[in-house]
Specification:
By secondary structure, the protein is an all-alpha fold. The chain has helices at residues 2-49, 51-59, 64-105, 116-142, 145-149.
């Protein structure tokens, strides 16, 4: 009889924890979306200041495709750096908090290594960074050489 009650209690506990985990994943998705939207806005606004840089690259022989790839590689590197720093902060925080949670509350966290789910989320974030980098890269691709070398007042 006790085993059945424990099983029911654990099942109810995991249902509550599952709802909380889903809510935290939705919040994390919103944070990533806001970060990507902010990055897109910043790159689009800085593209006007960088038009001269792009024109100089074009004048020394870079083709429009090179400018596009340069902007896309910048987006990929920023996305990958964000994923690496985020995972490092996550695992560092888990390593710091783990002993306290085990000694005080008896809760064990098993965050020793990067899981397949974390790799999947990281890949999705990098792909989203590439998608948000595509619009500024396309605009830089479409700019003509003369547009970047004319003086705007």
């Amino acid at each position: 009889m006790l085993a059945i009650l424990r099983g029911v209690t654990l099942q109810q506990l995991w249902q509550v924890v599952g709802i909380t985990e889903t809510a935290l994943l939705v919040v994390a998705d919103c944070v990533v979306f806001a970060g990507l939207l902010g990055r897109l806005t910043a790159v689009l606004t800085s593209l006007n200041e960088r038009r001269r840089e792009m024109a100089i690259l074009r004048s020394v022989g870079a083709r429009p495709a090179h400018v596009f790839l340069l902007m896309m590689s910048e987006a990929a590197l920023l996305g990958a750096a964000g994923v690496v720093v985020g995972m490092a902060l996550l695992h560092g925080a888990v390593a710091i908090v783990r002993p306290v949670l085990e000694s005080r509350y008896g809760v064990f966290l098993s965050g020793n290594r990067v899981t397949a789910f974390e790799l999947l989320i990281g890949t999705i974030v990098i792909a989203a960074a590439l998608l948000t980098g595509a619009l500024p890269a396309w605009r830089a691709y479409r700019k003509t050489l003369a547009d970047g070398l004319t003086i705007r007042v």
